[in-house]
Amino acid sequence: MVVSSLKTAKAEKLYHSQIREDLACAFRWAARLNMHEGIANHFSAVVNATSTKFLINPYGKYFSRISASDLLLLDTGTVPEEFGDAIDQTAYCIHGSIHRNQPRARCILHLHPKYATALSALKDTSIPPIDQTTMRFYNRVTVDNGYNGMGLGNEAERLSKKLGNGSVLLMGQHGVITVGETVAQAFDELFYFERACKTLFLALSSGREMNIASHEVAEKTARQWESYPRAAEKHFNALKEILDVEEPEYRY
pTM of the entire structure? Predict the structure, then answer.
């Protein structure tokens, strides 16, 4: 019994360390891809089975400088007083609420990237299936049009329930949230969603008529994206390989 407990404790420690490294990688790549906004925006990931303990970035730390050891460990119940003003209020409220109400969302990435945020500012936030990447999100994006100020208190609770069973929440007049069982999955969704939004705006800017795929083709392609073997993990591992050479300190 004691040996089993020790093995479990060791496994949890390794898992915690891995999540720290993965989140640090996600922060640095978000900065490299210019998807961040000053010192705003936040990522989190749970480190226990019940989704009550989660890591999040400290307030005021630039994404490109975040390392694994910088991340704060919080509880969905209360904000520890010892962290003082190191915690962004909206970060704790939004991420705490989603982790509490959506246990499947083990990783949550919230950003205001250029193209997704521009889409969130439009009356028509639909993404027509005009290419392979936009088809990935065909009928798979939840849109929130009830913006009511920064994500504090009741607003954070409302957002957490709006997500439903999806992995992408386009926050009207605000930005975007992507979620996943792993950091890799949430980041892959974020990366391709921003690409889809960029393609849409570039196509619209041409002034030409868009070539919209049929429902059958768009749905088939979306399902192919969902079943593509280990795509998110392979994508994210490739990003870590680059950082291991160019910015190895992200792991520490």
Answer: 0.94
